[in-house]
Amino acid sequence: MVDFPLFLSPHARDTVLTCVRTYLLTTLGCKVSRYESQEVRETIERLGLTQARGHETPDLVVVNTCAVTSIALVKSRRAARL
Length: 82
Fold this sequence. Notes:
3 helices; three-stranded parallel β-sheet; single chain; 46% helix; alpha/beta
C-alpha cells in the first residue's frame, strides 16, 4: 500500500490537502508501473481528490515511470517537462 504523501507530517498533509482538489496521474513503462499507479490512484482518491477532467489544470501531477532502459528514461524525462 502506498502512504501518500510519504514525506509530510500529518499536520502538513492535512494543510496541503485543503488546497489540492484534483490530480493527474500519468504512467509510463512496464506492468509493474501500471500496478503501482493503480495503488497511487486509489490512495489519492481515498484522500478525497478527484481526477482532473478535460482541459482542467490539476492541482497535483504524478508521473510514475519505469527507467530500466535508456529509452524509458528519455521518455520519462520528456514527459516530466510537459
